[in-house]
Every structure is written in structure tokens, then in C-alpha cells.
Model the fold of this input.
Amino acid sequence: MEYFLQQLINGVTLGSIYGLIAIGYTMVYGIIGMINFAHGDIFMVGAFIALIFIIALGFTAGTSFILLVLALMLVLVIAMVLTSIWGWTVERLAYRPLRESFRLAPLITAIGMSIVLQNLVQILQGARVKPLQPIITGGYVIMEKDGFVVNLSNIQILIVVTTVILMAVFSLIIARTELGRAQRACEQDRVMAALVGVNVDRTISLTFVIGAALAAVAGLMYLLYYGVIDFYIGFVAGIKAFTAAVLGGIGSLPGAMLGGMTIGLIETFWSAYFTVEYKDVAAFSILAIVLIFLPSGLLGKPEVEKV
Amino acid sequence: MPRLLDALKDAGIAGLIALGLAIPIWSHLTVQKPGGLVLEQRWWLVAIAVATVFAGRLVLNLFWWPRRGAAAGLGRQVARIAAPLAGAEKWLGPALIGLAILMPFLPFSNRYIMDLAILVLTYVMLGWGLNVVVGLAGLLDLGYVAFYAVGAYSYALIATTFGLSFWVCLPLAGLFAATWGVILGFPVLRLRGDYLAIVTLAFGEIIRIILINWYDLTNGPDGITGIPRPSFFGLEFKRFGDNTFAGFFGLEYSPIQRIIFLYYVILVLALITNIVTVRLRRLPVGRAWEALREDEIACRSLGINTTSTKLTAFAIGAMFGGFAGSFFATRQGFISPESFTFIESAIILAIVVLGGMGSQIGIAIAAVVMIGGFELFRELELYRMLIFGLAMVGIMVWKPRGLVSSRAPTIAIGKRKAISSDLVGEGHG
Done:
């Protein structure tokens, strides 16, 4: 029971990170119907930007609480802004010229961009893993029984709370603001949206910007949680986040979050109770099973096949 | 000078964006020191990057784009749709095959060139194999490397365990790969498009993870060594021994003989792939593939069994992947899961799409360009993957339908004309 509870906490934390990345996939897929394969690497770039600013600001676990909060907020905002530029640029260079082309074309450029981003970061920052001293330490003991301690660390609280807040904010943006309306309009019919005065190019660009900003948040959280990153983290995290997006029902924001949680929990429990080596197999098998029996995902709208 | 001002403004914005991209990943290098990571500043790199973007954008604005605007028009679009059957394709194919057959005896060919040619032909074969699935049947497969791996491992395991020769194992490996193609095909029958892509990708990763972790069978990450080499009708390519190739034909022994032999093996395998594909296109099953690609619902209402059509596409594509895999294993003499990562699938798919799906010759050209070009940058070990990625994006933006962007219709009333690939539903499903 204690062990289960501990794994549940770990799984929810991991799931939050996946969920944040998954939102980027789900929004882009919803609006232009393509797998933004480079999104996982945007997440990696975000983690690197955050790492460099954390070192530049020079704060550690010893910094006073207020200062630490301020510095983290600053790093978060900077990372979101700078990563957004990467997301925007990728869309502008690799996807926009192929907007009206056939479906495989943007997928190929997306894979190409993923290769470019990985190797660019590898060239610029080296192939070695980058470790970071833990910054947010401490936590609470929830339960203690027979020598087994269930821990809820501060960083886990931070990750889950940040995710929940961001989810709420972005759900509001999609539901209430003009940008959200434009996005939903483009999702339904791009030509018609353009006819009624929606700037389609700008809306799509902003979608990429939002996705990249959320990926940057995920990058910072990943960095703080695991304390080590390299240029390759984007690939596996990206595939799992996409799995999460599909699992939750692609195009649906709460679905992405739910899917992320599910994948995070499955992975954690599988590693805890079965084998660590096959945890990715478990995640991918779940993806295949869900797609076969529930093709529109947990919360997605069923696709109507038109003749 | 409003044009100059506009160009300057635009280039300035581009430069600012480049600056935004350059900070901090370009400007600060994280270095591992005892006591943690420290930063090293290198603003000169940022300056170069920003200046390049600014200057490049300015030149494009002033000299390139104004001229190009006039040329692009409706005329080009129409010409593309009604182009006559490309004359080039008629003689280019036989010419390339002739060149490939004569290749080992050309004056410039040496061991390095032959090794490269073998590599290129392996990718040509893989491209043609994947083309059956993606180009003809329109099923987007991102996990093709799984079948390549199945072929390589089945040959390696059968040959090292039972001591069977390459020529016995080759069909077996193809059979195994085809079986796996069907096993994968069954569950994903209902999926289309990107969902299919992501499930096949997941399948490829699952196979790789199993290869890494199933230590008893595959020897895990260490891979399998000592895979036997193929023989020429029982004659081996060795310096000493009873049954050597050189001894039988009374030749001076030279290691290049084995390379040339391997070259012809892969050439024949690739040509078989090509011939089988071209012939299949004219058989009912090939037509069913293409019909399925264009419209699945129409297919079903015409009484085509979509299940078996899809499964045969998967099986045949996988079989060719399996052949290529066993060739890879016998050529290397060593295989490990390292060789079967997702990036291989991406490269093969890129070759198929960049070459122009459905166009056999386009795929061959794309394989030569991509793999040969990749080799050209061997000196720049660190940069060549970056250049490869940039080339993928660049070619795709420049020619979204691939290098050969016209298609020969399978059947036509009257004179056969090449049609624009925009009219074909490739890659939709």
C-alpha cells in the first residue's frame, strides 16, 4: 500500500510533464492535422535554455526562499519566451511552405527538423549529459509504516501545481479569448475561417508558440526533477507525449492531460512492479491497444468518415 | 529607395529572430568542471550567426525574390499536369542499370567506392521495399526498420546456431520478416494516416527494446558476432583452403573479389525487388493496392478485400526489408540493436518521399543523393547529421512531391501520359 502510494505520486509527477508536452502535439494536430515531430526536441531546447539561465543566475538550494521563487519565475518566463521563438521558427521554415502540400511532406520536414535540432544542440553544447545540482530540496513524509516512508517532495508539488495552473490558464485561453475562438475556427475549417476574417497564418503560428512555451515549462520541470539532461531527451519524451495525446483523444486539451497522466502512471507502475527495461514497451503497447479498440482516444470526438 | 528600406527592415527582423534563437544556446557553452557546470561565453558565434542571417535575408530580398515573383504563375501549374511521359525515364533506367552492372570494372572504382555502392544499393532496396507499403498501398509506415532488424537477426541467429548457409537463410529471413509484417498488419488494419504511422513507429521501438533486453537470444546490446559470409556456389572467399573462389577460377586472391561479389548480390536483390514491384503493379493485387491508396471506401464497395490487400502490402514490403536485413548482416559480419534505430526508418522513408513515391527511379536517385551525399561529409563527422536533416527539409520545401514529381499511370485509355503527382493520393492514408 505504501509502495503503491509512493508510485502513484511519482507517476502523477511524470504524467504532468508528459501532459505538458502532449498539449503541444494535440493543439498542432488539432489545427493543421500533422504530427509535429520536432516538438519533443523543442522540449529539449527548452530544458537547455532553462539550464543555462539557472547556471547564469547562479542560484542553488541554499538561496533564500523568496529569491529562489523569483529566480525560478524569471527562468521560467525567459525559457518560455526563448523557446517560443524556436517553435515559431520551425513552423515558419519547415511547415508553412508546405501548408497546402500533401500530407506526408510536412511529416518529412518535421522529422528533418527533429534531426536538425538534436544535432545542432549536440554541436553547440556537446554530447555529454549535463548534470545539475538539486535546487528544490526537501519534502513531506505522508506515511510511514514498517520502515517504508512515503515521500512527497517539494519539487513534485511544484510540478503538479504548475501543471494544473497552466492547464487551467490555457483551457481558459482556448475557451474564452479571441485567439482561442480563432483556433477552434481554424480547426473546423481553415478556408471558411479565412473568409470570415481570421488570420489563419497568425493563428497557426501562435499555436506553435503556445505549444513551445508549454514544452519549455515541461523542460524546466524535467530538468529540476531529474537533474540531468542531454540532447537526446526529446525523442523518447516526445514519442511518449504523442502517445499521451493520442490516448487522450487528439485535439482535446483535457484529453492530453489525462493521456499524459495515464502514460506516466502506466510507466511508473510497470517499472515498479514488473521490469524497468520493458517500461517503454508497456507504454507503446497501450498506445497500440487503445488505438485499435478506441481509435478516437479517451476524450476525443469520433471521426466521421465522409464519402 | 523604399525597396531598400523594406529589405533592410525585413532583414533586421530576421536578424533579431536569429539573435533570439542564438541566446543562450549559441552564446553560452555549458562546461563540466569539478563543482558543477560553468558557462563559457562565445558571443563571436552569435555575431557570425546573426550577421549571416541578416546578410542572407538582405540579398534574398534585394536580388532573388523580386525576380522569382514574375516566373511563378498559372502556366507552370498547367504544364505540370499535362507533361508528356517523361522521355528521360525511358532511357535513364536502363542506363543506370548498365552503369551499375559495369561499376566494379570502371577505372575509378576502388574498395572505398565499392563499399559505398553496396551501402547505397542496400538503401535503394530498402526504399523500393518500403515503397510497396507507402507509395503503392498508401500505408504510412514509420517502423520499417523493424523488418530490416528481423531479417538481420533471423539470418544471424539461424546461421550461427544451425550453421546454414546464406542462400538457405535468405528466403527464411524473408519469410520471417513477412510473417512479422502480417503480425503487425493485423492489429493496425483499422488505422489510417498518422495513427498508423505512430503505431508502426511504436512497433519499431518495441522490436528494438526487445532486441536489447532479450539477452539469452540476441546477446543484448553486445550484438551477434561471427556471422558467416556468403559463398559463391559453395566457393568461399578466402586466401587458403580447398574450395576458394580464387583457387577454382585460377585467380590471384584479392579481398576485393569478396566486395565485388557482395556488390553483385545486393544489385541482384535490389533488381529483383524492382522487377517484382513493377510486375505486381500490373497484377490485380497491385491494382488493388493503388485503388486502396486512392479511396478505401470505393474499394470496399467494389468488392475488394481490404484486409488481405493491406496484409499483402505489409508482408511483401516486410519481406524485402528482411532480405535487405540478412544481406546487411552477412556483409557486416556483426549486428547489434544500434543499427536499427528509428533514425534508419526515417532515412528510408525520407528516401522514398524525397525520390517521389511510386517512382522507382526517383527512389534510386534519392538514395544515391542522400546516402552518397552523407558519405561526402565523412570528414565532418559531427556536422553531417545536421546537414542531412537540413537537406531533408530543404529538398522537401523545394520539391514537395519528390525529385521525380510525375507519375506514370498504371492503366490509361489511349496514349499513356505522365500525370502530376498532385493528382495521386499518395501518402494520404
